[in-house]
Amino acid sequence: MEDTGGSKLIQNLTLNIGAISKVISLTPTFQHVTWIQQNICKKECCFFFEKGASLCSSAQQREDVCMCGYSKSEHVADAIRTEDTGDGTWDPHVHVREVPTDAFGDISFGGLRQTTTKYARVSTETSPEVLYQLMTEQWKISPPNLLISVTGGAKNFYLKTRLKNIFQRGLIKVAQTTGAWIITGGTNTGVMKHVGQAVRDYSLSSSMQGQIVTIGLATWGVIHNKEVLVNSQGCFPAHYPMDVKGRLPCLDNNHTHFLLVDDGTYGRYGVEINLRSRLEKFISEKTLGNKAVGVNIPVVLVVLDGGAGTLNTIYTAMLNDTPCVVLEGSGRMADVIAHAAGLPVNQVTISLIHRLLKKFLSLEYDNFTDLRIIEWTKKIQDIIRMSHLLTVFRGGGDSHGDVDVAILQALFKASRVSASQVVDGWRRQLELAIVWNRVDIATTEIFTDESQWKSSDLHWAMFSALVGNKPRFVSLLLENGVSLREFLQSEDTLCELYKQLPNCFFLRKLAKRVHASCYRRRKVFAVRNRVHSSQTEGIALNHVSDEVRHLLGNFTQPIYPPPATMYHFNMEDATSLSRSLSGSQAPLRVDLAEAQRDPARDLFLWAVVQKNKELSEITWEQCTDCVSAALAACKILGKMAEEGSDADEAANMQELADHFEMHAIGVFTKCYSASEERAKRLLVRVSPFWGKTTCLRLALEANCKSFVALSGVQALLTEIWCGELSVDNPVWRVTICMIFFPLIYTGFLTYRPDELIQKQNKKCEDIKTVASVTGSVRQTKAKSPDLTTVKSLNCWSRLTCLYSSPQVKFYWNIVSYFAFLFLFAIVLMMDFQTTPSPAEILLYVWLFSVVSEEVRQFIYDPDGFGFHKKARMYFRELWNILDVLSIILFIIGLVFRLTTKLFYAGKIVLCIDFVVFCLRLMAIFSISRTLGPKIIIVRRMMMDMFFFMFLLSIWVVAYGVAKQGILIHNDNRLQWILRGAVYEPYLIIFGSVPTNVDYSEFNLDSCTMNGSDPLKPKCPVLNENQTPAFPEWLTIIMLCVYLLFANILLLNLLIAIFNFTFQEVQDNTDRIWKFQRYELIKEYHSRPAAPPPFIILSHLSIFIRNVVLCRPPLKSRKFRTELPHIEEEELLSWEALMKDRYLLSTQQQQSQTMERCIVETVQKVNAITDRLEREEEISSAILIKRLARLEEQVVHSVKGLQWIMESLKSQGLAGKEEQPLPVPSTVKESSETLDCVDETDGFHVKARQFHYPNSEVTRFPVPEEKVPWEVSFSSYAPSYFSSEDNTDGSDAEVLENFRNPGGRTGIRGQGSLSHLGPNLHVDLVITRLRDSGRSVLEFLAVEDKQKKMVLPGGPLESAERLPSALLRTMGNSLYEKLHEKILEGILVFQGYVDDVRNTDNAWVETTVFNIHLDSSEDSEEIVNMSCSHGSLQWEEVSCRNGLCSDQSDSLRRVAMLHNRDS
Question: Phi/psi of residue 170, each to 5°?
């Protein structure tokens, strides 16, 4: 109904629009323009107020200029008015308005490297949410995983080459690996230029992929050439000239996006700062991706160079808990902070900041006032005090290594310190590391020796790493204790993984299967379960199992059991379902009791079907049955490559399949070199994890020729080929024993059981020999083998083993086949009578036995392939096709032969059939190691011959038709036409030169004039003198050209093709022959012992046994063996050991490769170069410091000598003391009180915060050294603030009576406290012991208005009563009970508390009591009351209590009283 209504609405709109709909279409560009015009605004001055002449520069005096900075001509028409503004002033809040933006679209930068970026002119009042929507939805930028805000010097500054390279390389690396956004000022100056150069170098690097999002927030009013960006309909693109010589800065052409912030003024810098901070704060509150639930996007500030504005930016960011990374050596304010950060706070004095400012900001130092330096000192002290948010990257040290590591470690350090307020800070760090894909950071910062992880704690991380394609994290999590069995214990986890598969071939196939399953279910249960049929069915393991079974082959069983719900149908439904599914290819044979789950197999399969090489490599290493897993991966990938339509995707699948085949080869080679018998058992062992199939079967189905060609696999096949006979028996001995079988009882032929007994006896003798020498009886008992496991064969067994051996069967069939061909030839040449002779009847019986054997082979299906699969496999073999062809031709010839009219035709057909039977003889010799590969080469050359004959036929037909048309005129005899046009040109290739193309060989008697003689060709056209009329020169030239191309060119091309084929196939013929050898061995292994025609008796016995007596067919254990559980576990453990050895040897080989050695050498050379450069910089810096100190000492010495000389000249009069170097007064005060500061442990910090809470009042900056009242502070001028109307409080005399014992706070008055002087506060720490297997100390916490847990307490109004706030919090009953128990409480702390509300004249003093509840009745009653109260909660005493710092200290003291750690 919704679709119908929508279509009608669109139809009506189309009719109403009419002709306009033909012009306007809602293209993406049109929608983009419309959205920006509706949501993005700019600012413009709406009233022209002329600036005074004194305020205008000389350049601006020529034209009228408004107070906004723009000229009169740049204002809109209605802004130029003559009426007065009212108060005679220009107010930006009144005279600036918002209008739709007129500058947006694309910027095309000119120059050598032309780039195109997005831009928009936005108002300062634009909502950050709108800007974020613009970038993510309109500009299609992926949401960031990290926000890097780069700030610092806005003007060009020098950055050392080494530091510049480190910064650019680290910034790009962290942005590339984490998917971060980089936010800068956007202009082509200062730090923004360095960031742009880094992005440019990244984009030019061919080894990196993807785009780094670099967003520039610049001020519109200070941008050079901004006029070209203005277009009300958008610029697509706007051509922006890079004029770096202008007075105003240009945009940086290396940024990817620009937000040009407009406040309606011209020439004002720093307009974008407020919007930038709001945008960064908004982005930091967004959730990080869809998989890391609960984690916000982290923000980090990177600082280079900078001035006073940079210091304010750092201070504000750190107050918002944003970590900052400062690059030492970048200059100016960054170096000031970097040098001060290495000192304790009490040593960062005003005089130190003076010296640092004079050193690093020498050009601006003279303009700094003492008050500003005091304020900066206070801010720098606060910045250093927040050490968890400050990271100094020292390029000359080895602390971080690179800037990217420093940035990420700064984020981790900040989150680790704040983890006390978060339930699980480590989880947040791990989520960030996974999203950023930084295994190195996770290894050094999270998975350390101190951290202990449970497997269940990391399951979410494992899921996130798998879905996010983070293979290195998967490996790291497995190394740190993640159990795959616990992780995939629930099937829902695996189903969710398949739902989160990336778009791939398997997912599309799986979706089709799920859809088909839903359709069949709706069709079967349409009437009864109509409600359930309407519901959509998701991906289940049975769907995955069906699809994997399709890829592996129907000869396997489902790897996952069907869901239990499939067996809860009633009988009618089950009957209908069985009828609907009766047409399936193969029966579903699964034993639910035997269904086994291997979590490593499940993950490996999940990784393989999505073609993820790294994940599949890691999960394969965890597989129990690794050889079967690798071969199954080859089969699955090969099948998907065969069914896929994308050639590139199919090539990638085949490449991954070859990779896992090499793994299977490597592991099996290790297994075979360690133990041949175990390796052979590994090949034919039934794997319960891969559909009840074997390694050998998987290798054959996956077409793994290299694996099958291994010596271990071939040894197994040879062993099966020989049966119970020894593989060392010569062929001539086996042949003699076939005829003279009594020789087997004389030891003429060796059997395998006899070999095993001989080996065991020899081993026993060796052990006894060693025991006789060493004298140890224990070794003899321990190492003697069990001789009862192998028994010697009796006489009958030896005879049956001889003739049941596939090798002997093959030899008898060779003899039988030659006899059949001999009989066939005799019948055709000597005894082919009208009435069949006895020899011919014997031939027919013989052929019937051959036909019956072919039928048996076609029906025989021990592997459970099914009829269709078996038929495809049968007709895929060339020799089977020849068998069918020979049988069909024989039947046709026999039918013709039994009729009188077609008797001779039947003989001809039988003669042709004899040729086919002789060709079939080549299959017999394919078992030979010498002739087998040659037959493969012949087959390949036959394919080349076919294509060559197509090319040759073009020349033959072209020459033949032309020759026949020139020589013969209108010949209507078809046989002679074909002879002249095809047959004769074909014979010319082999040297038969025609005689009718020239006059000299012409003979009129050899032809007929009118074509009446059927035995002669027609004569050519003759002249009057009875000579041929055709042009002799033309026919001879045509013959020469034909011989040139056909005989020389094409035949030599054929030889070259054969040579190429031979060289190409020669290297692989042995491998191909070994692979095809399996089918012949399997054929003769299942073949009856008697050769044709006696084999008909064996077929009759098989028919009676299987059909008449209904007995199950006999199963051989040679190709398929089910081992006992204990033996299988032992074999798999041994296989896992061999796999580890293989992986170790592979790693060693990779580490010794030439490429790896070159890379390691380059890394070492780079490390040595960096170290030398670093040491050179350090030594030069130390030398400069020493020279500066020496110069300073020389200046002091000179001044001292001058003073001495002046004193001596005054003849002993006391001269006026002069200081060698004049210093400011603040430095004098600081030096006087330095000793006092050093002796103090610390001062209040919260009471000196710049912004007083719940007000707009700003404190006077009070550095650490000026806190004590005893220290003089002449510049101290705090403001007065009182939240209550108290006129007396501003009296200086009254305020002098109350002085904060903690020192100066930067504000006078009462503040937001209740009265001047001490404001008493009481906190109660109510504790109890909870016995839950271990004695746990708990405390009672209260939830405040901000949903945070605090200790119960409040301001104290009376000394006799508890605070009234407790009465409101706990209720009357609990309040009275606690009041009674307060006398039993222990005084934990009493005194001054550092509170943000403290002022110079009012402060908070807190008293902390501990009330411990024991097992008394009163205590139990209080516990019951607290548990029934909603806002109260018992919490365990620990370091992660979530309380503020003061209350955490009180809780720590209580824990020490009770001998507990908190």
Answer: -70, -40
CA 625 from centre of chain: 25
96-100 vs 41-45, strand pairing mode: antiparallel
The position carrying tokens 């984490």 is: 178
713-740 b/e (C-beta count within 10 Å ≥ 16 → b):
bebbbebbbbbbbbeebeeeebeebbee
Name the token pair of 1462.
């908190």
Do you know the residue count of the chain? 1462
Pairwise CA distance, residues 994 & 814, whole Å: 46
* The residue type at 197: Q
C-alpha closest to that of 305 among 367, 237, 375, 364? 364
Q: What is the dihedral of CA 1323, 1324, 1325, 1329, to 10 degrees?
A: -170
For residue 325, what are the β-bridge partners?
302, 391
Q: How far does CA 499 lie from the centroid of its chain?
A: 16
CA distance 1154 to 491: 46
Q: What tokens does 28 get?
A: 């993406």
Q: Which two tokens stand for residue 293?
A: 């639930």
> Exposed e or buried b for every residue in 801-834, given b needs 16+ CB within 10 A?
bbeebbbbbbbbbeebbeebeebbeebbeeebee
The two counts, helices (H) then strands (E), for the chain are 55, 21
pLDDT, block means (10 residues), the chain with 1462 residues: 38 36 46 87 85 48 74 79 60 84 88 79 92 92 91 82 85 87 91 88 63 90 89 85 77 91 87 90 82 74 90 89 90 90 87 89 88 92 90 67 83 68 66 85 80 82 90 90 89 90 88 82 55 56 88 86 52 38 40 61 93 92 92 93 86 92 94 92 91 90 90 91 87 88 84 81 80 62 47 82 88 89 90 86 89 82 70 77 88 88 89 88 74 77 82 86 83 83 84 75 77 80 75 82 84 85 75 81 85 86 79 73 89 92 88 79 80 71 74 80 79 46 40 38 82 88 90 89 64 82 90 89 86 71 78 79 76 78 83 91 91 70 63 76 79 81 52
Q: Which of 401, 436, 173 is nearest to 292 (CA)?
A: 436
DSSP code for 144: P
How far from each other are the two terminal CA atoms of the chain, in whole angstroms?
64
By C-alpha distance, which of 81, 103, 82 is closest to 33? 103
Q: State the amino acid at position 324 in one-letter form.
A: C
CB 1411 within 8 A of CB 1325: yes
Gyration radius from the chain CA atoms: 48
The two three-digit tokens of residue 486, written as one number: 């616990």
Token pair listed for 81: 């008015």
Separation between Cα atoms, residue 320 and residue 371, nearest integer Å: 25
Burial of 1395: CB neighbours in 10 Å, binned 0-12, 13-18, 19+? buried
User: What DSSP character marks residue 343?
Assistant: S
CA of residue 1120 relative to chain centroid, distance: 39
| Element containing residue 1163 per DSSP (H, E) | helix 1154-1209
Residue 50: C-alpha distances to residues 60, 68, 84, 127, 188 (Å): 11, 9, 11, 32, 32
φ, ψ at 692 (rounded to 5°): 60, 40
**Cβ-based neighbour number of residue 337 at 10 Å:** 25
Is residue 411 within 8 Å of residue 428, measured between CB atoms? no
Q: Cα–Cα distances in Å, from 223 out to 98, 235, 261? A: 20, 17, 10
Helix orientation angle between 613-622 and 647-674, rounded to the nearest 10 degrees: 20
Exposed, middle or buried by CB within 10 Å (0-12, 13-18, 19+), for 317?
buried
- Residue 227, SS3 per DSSP: helix
> What angle is formed at CA 682 by the lines to CA 676 and CA 685, rounded to 5 degrees?
140
DSSP 959: H
